[in-house]
From TrEMBL:
<dbReference type="InterPro" id="IPR017979">
    <property type="entry name" value="GPCR_3_CS"/>
</dbReference>
<dbReference type="InterPro" id="IPR004073">
    <property type="entry name" value="GPCR_3_vmron_rcpt_2"/>
</dbReference>
<feature type="transmembrane region" description="Helical">
    <location>
        <begin position="517"/>
        <end position="548"/>
    </location>
</feature>
<feature type="transmembrane region" description="Helical">
    <location>
        <begin position="638"/>
        <end position="657"/>
    </location>
</feature>
<feature type="transmembrane region" description="Helical">
    <location>
        <begin position="560"/>
        <end position="582"/>
    </location>
</feature>
<dbReference type="InterPro" id="IPR038550">
    <property type="entry name" value="GPCR_3_9-Cys_sf"/>
</dbReference>
<keyword id="KW-0807">Transducer</keyword>
<dbReference type="GO" id="GO:0004930">
    <property type="term" value="F:G protein-coupled receptor activity"/>
</dbReference>
<feature type="transmembrane region" description="Helical">
    <location>
        <begin position="718"/>
        <end position="738"/>
    </location>
</feature>
<dbReference type="InterPro" id="IPR011500">
    <property type="entry name" value="GPCR_3_9-Cys_dom"/>
</dbReference>
<dbReference type="InterPro" id="IPR017978">
    <property type="entry name" value="GPCR_3_C"/>
</dbReference>
<keyword id="KW-0812">Transmembrane</keyword>
<keyword id="KW-0732">Signal</keyword>
<keyword id="KW-0325">Glycoprotein</keyword>
<keyword id="KW-0675">Receptor</keyword>
<dbReference type="Pfam" id="PF00003">
    <property type="entry name" value="7tm_3"/>
</dbReference>
<dbReference type="InterPro" id="IPR001828">
    <property type="entry name" value="ANF_lig-bd_rcpt"/>
</dbReference>
Length: 791
């Protein structure tokens, strides 16, 4: 439909009309059912303006209406006729001045583009009520184009937001192969990509290409996407619907645009099986007082060929069965309101140009040109009867306002376009898009939200790995590795836990690592403490026995002072093992190794002194020997002190240069933190251990040499055996210490300390205690010297 508001006349005379009767039913195609209603709306608006005392008070608007029958060629003929003042535009050349001030139309974007390009050089304003292609927003190409509907820029982006809102990340897309469909789909695809929505396929066809339509149907049938975005004119949508019904392709979720979502022509007895539950954006329904009554009255007169106050008056009891196939729902006044606003926009621009007022009317002497109307339309801002404000933005479009409608069945089994939300671009961010999800009915009457994804969501604990050669929405869910987590759905990667944390079993939470060290309260710790204290107690008992029997020969033999010092050092050896138990600290780490090194050197020094005493005592019995004066008690004490001081110096150097320190070992176990004492300087540690070993080997060699000296109680043989045990323990300690993990390293060291201490205690003192307690008759000087009589 093309309408031209073109002539301005005084209301004393009647404006010229293009026909003496109102337009008859248009019969070119099903498209024209709506176009006929648009023509009626235009007539209503012009008649209302011509009767107004406030708008153009002494001016009347004339008009001509053309039916293009859905043909761009026919549109061209019509616009040439409008510009040249001849309805048919046959056999006339274009004149220099256009006979029209504005053109209302077209309904489709492609025809509107041709129309705007044709009228552009003449600066004739073209105002469309339904051409939504974003391409028409280019003011350099279409400087005189306006529209009372929003650009598809908003609708296409809103479609992507709608799809994303329901979690549909895998959709199909079909569009009309036209300026309207191609431009709108291009914007949607870009917006969908920004929203993270993947499109499985994009197909297009034109109403004149049935072979492409069949290809589209086949693609839909084979696809896995359960949601289809249809950016189609209602003619193409009707063609697609017929084929989907024919091939019994039902249950899909269609997302529609304003061009077809409320099109009455799509409502058939079988269409609901395909389109039931469809969601889409529709032009807001308007409530313009008087328009509905006018359209119904005009419809009644046209259909029943009757008029009021004529020879064939209309009856209240007309036979409605004659209209059983009529599907033009006059209550869906959506695009009709846009035509109404377009007519009023032209009227208000003329009102401004003619400087009209209610008291003085309009200046009839002003020669109005189309370009003046164009400039005036840019500034126009008015309110229609229903309270809605009308103006044009800098692209010549109206503000984007849509209803979100849902195809539902009413209580009478009729198809209804139920509003379930709205989109209003003029509102603040966060209020633009509102949906009432609870009111939506999904395909096949389901109340549960359909699912359309290429891959199911990856749960926390997994991350997405894209499938090769497929869109980003197609992926596999791979569990996170140990020590990594993903705590959100559809995570793109796993995050490594902080150093002191570890992933739980589900790989969705970082939990603190278990801290491992040798506790006093655990079984192993309790056992080691028990044997430590038992060794201290045993040493104390032996010392008590020796103290009580200090004057007996067996105690006095081989320097009792060294024996008591040895018992004291063994007590310290037992007690130093306690420093290895518990949480390592700076002081405990320095104390444990130094205390161990010094006490054991003191212990071995005493044993070494006793061994030397045995050798010296034997040498002293030889004639002319004065060896004992060179290794008397003073020299024995000095030797013990000297050997011990050397170890003390080594320990001081170690603690000064690079002392041991507490260390969190996170390398041995992935899920544990081992609290241990780092050696600081390994050289210091092995120097301490090596010095102990050197003294032990020296003591073993000397004791071994003195083991067969004549004496009933030769202490050297017991020292030999004790040193053999001591060396065996510490030789096996080295590989066990290096290979034992965590707290077992400490346990091995404590075991070596206790085993060697018990070995010394039992080997050296057990035989003496046996004689003192159980065989006191052998505790005599004669027996010790081997001078008892044999039986």
């Amino acid at each position: 439909m093309i309408g031209g508001a073109f002539s301005i006349h005084s209301k004393i005379t009647q404006p010229p009309l293009s026909f003496t009767e109102k337009p008859t039913r248009l019969t070119c195609s099903s498209v024209n059912l709506r176009e006929f209603r648009f023509a009626q709306t235009m007539i209503f608006a012009i008649e209302e303006i011509n009767k107004s005392e406030f708008l153009l008070p002494n001016i009347s608007i004339g008009y001509r209406i053309y039916d293009n029958c859905g043909s761009t060629f026919t549109s061209m003929r019509a616009v040439m006729a409008l510009m040249n003042g001849d309805e048919r535009a046959v056999g006339k050349s274009c004149s220099g001045q256009s006979a029209v001030h504005a053109i209302i139309g077209e309904s489709e974007s492609s025809s509107t583009i041709v129309l705007s390009r044709t009228t552009g050089p003449f600066k004739i304003p073209v105002i469309s009520h339904s051409a939504t292609c974003e391409c028409l927003s280019k003011r350099k190409e279409y400087p005189s184009f306006f529209r009372t509907i929003a650009s598809d820029l908003y609708q296409s982006r809103a479609l992507a937001q709608l799809v994303k809102h329901f979690g549909w990340t895998w959709v199909g897309a079909i569009n009309s192969d036209s300026d309207y469909g191609n431009n709108g789909m291009a914007i949607f695809l870009a917006a969908a990509q920004e929203e993270g929505v993947c499109v499985e396929y994009t197909e297009k066809f034109h109403r004149t290409e049935p072979e492409k339509l069949m290809k589209v149907v086949e693609v839909i049938r084979k696809s896995t996407a359960r949601v289809i975005v249809g950016f189609l004119a209602h003619v193409e949508m009707n063609d697609l619907l017929e084929q989907l019904i024919l091939h019994n392709i039902t249950g899909l979720q269609f997302i529609g645009v304003e061009a077809w979502i409320t099109a009455d022509s799509l409502v058939t007895p079988t269409s609901f099986s395909v389109l039931g539950g469809s969601l889409g954006f529709a032009v807001q329904k308007a409530n313009i007082s008087g328009l509905e009554d006018f359209l119904i009255k005009d419809f009644w007169e046209t259909e029943f060929n009757c008029k009021e106050k004529t020879e064939t008056p209309c009856k209240e009891s007309q036979d409605l069965m004659e209209l059983k196939d009529y599907d033009d729902d006059v209550t869906e006044l959506r695009y009709s309101s846009n035509i109404y606003k377009a007519i009023y926009a032209v009227a208000h621009s003329l009102h401004s140009i003619l400087k009209c007022s209610k008291s003085q009317g309009c200046e009839n002497t002003v020669n109005v040109t189309p370009w003046q109307v164009v400039e005036s339309l840019k500034q126009v801002h008015f309110t229609i009867k229903n309270g809605e404000q009308v103006w044009f933005d800098n692209t010549g479009a109206a503000v984007a306002r849509y209803e979100v409608v849902n195809w539902q069945r009413g209580s009478d089994d009729s198809v209804q376009f139920k509003p379930v939300g709205y989109y209003d671009a003029s509102l603040p961010l966060g209020q633009k898009f509102v949906l009432k999800t609870e009111d939506i009915v999904w395909p096949r009457g389901n109340t549960e939200l359909p699912v359309s994804v290429c891959s199911e969501s990856c749960h926390p604990g997994t991350h997405k790995v894209l499938q090769k050669g497929k869109p980003v929405c197609c992926y596999d869910c791979i569990p996170c590795a140990e020590g990594e987590i993903s705590n959100s759905t559809d995570s793109n990667d796993c995050h490594k836990c902080p150093e002191e944390y570890w992933s739980n079993e589900n790989r969705d939470t970082c939990i603190p690592k278990n801290v491992e060290f040798l506790y006093f309260t655990e079984v192993m710790g309790i056992l080691l403490v028990f044997f430590t204290l038992f060794g201290v107690l045993l040493t104390f008992i032996i010392a008590t026995v020796f103290l009580i029997n200090k004057d007996t020969p067996i105690v006095r033999a081989n320097n009792s002072e060294l024996s008591f010092l040895l018992l004291f050092s063994l007590t310290l050896c037992f007690l130093c093992s306690l420093t290895f138990i518990g949480r390592p600290s700076q002081w405990s780490c320095m104390l444990r190794h130094t205390a161990f090194g010094i006490t054991f050197v003191l212990c071995i020094s005493c044993v070494l002194g006793k061994t030397i005493v045995v050798l010296m005592a034997f040498r002293a019995t030889l004639p002319g020997s004065n060896m004992m004066k060179w290794f008397g008690p003073a020299q024995q004490r000095l030797s013990v002190l000297s050997f011990t001081v050397i170890q003390v110096i080594i320990c001081i150097l170690w603690l000064t240069i690079n002392p041991p320190f507490p260390f969190k070992n996170m390398n041995h176990y992935k899920d544990k933190i081992i609290l241990e004492c780092a050696l600081g300087s390994p050289v210091g540690f092995w120097a301490v251990l090596g010095y102990i070993g050197l003294l032990a080997v020296l003591c073993f060699l000397l004791a071994f040499l003195a083991r067969k000296l004549p004496d009933n109680f030769n202490e050297a043989k017991f020292i030999t055996f004790s040193m053999l045990i001591f060396c065996a323990v510490w030789i096996t300690f080295i590989p066990a210490y290096v290979s034992s993990p965590g707290k077992f390293t400490v346990a091995v060291e404590i075991f070596a300390i206790l085993a060697s201490s018990y070995g010394l205690l039992f080997c050296i003192f057990a035989p003496k205690c046996f004689i003192i307690v159980l065989k006191p008759e052998l505790n005599t000087k004669k027996h010790l010297m081997g001078k008892t009589e044999s039986n």
